Amino acid sequence: MHERVTVMVRWLVLCVLMALPVTAAQAQVSDLVSSTAFRVCADPANLPFSSKSGEGFENRIADLVAAELGMPVEYTWFPMATGFVRNTLRTGQCDVILGFAQGHELVLNTNHYYTSTHVLVTRTDSALAEVDTLSDSRLKGREIGVIAGSPPASHLARNGLMATTHGYNLMVDRRVESPIETMLRDLSEGRLDAAIMWGPAGAPLAKSMAGLKITPLLKEPESPKLFYRITMGVRQGELVWKRKLNSLIRKKQDEIDAILREAGVPLLDDMGRALKTDGG
Known about the structure:
This protein is an alpha/beta fold.
């Protein structure tokens, strides 16, 4: 009997010891969130999203959140390329990344604060200006630009359009290369007949260029999907911080929508089936 009790005690002690590192780790993660500033991890040269000059729509959303929290915004700058999360959020230098796709495993996602989709950009005087699906026969034989490896490329391949498709780099340092801007310039100057890009990245830039039409791609029934719900990303385990941001997103949703609409971001309903109505 004594031996049985000893074994049970040892098992209980082992369970407690196994639990201790997890509890400590959670406490340490929680302690990383600043109580004096809204610390944002961001790209210094990634317009229309963010820039050191504060011109991006994510800069404006950060200002909105910080004002609600009663804190100043502090940035940790790093190019949005390989190693971004590892060198910013995970080092504890900053506490949130704006503009993270829902379900991404590198971060803990807040509730989404907008849903958007890829867009087709054409010249307004082009025969392709009325095209609204990638299965449209009018795209056959046309010079089309797309970000290599992005979801629309799979749709182009399925529709037999790859022979005249031009790929632009996906992961770049925007301080030295800007594929979306290059693609739009190639379209505007006639080297492309159409360009396909992520709406929040391309639509605000295309909006500022004369003679271009932006068409959200809402009619692609097959995988991969072209719309995504966009969240704020925090460190894994920071549930209290996540809930605080969720509450703030819910409270300030109309103001967030207004910032995004003014920038030219195509906003969709939560299911990605239709454009979101103003106030809806």
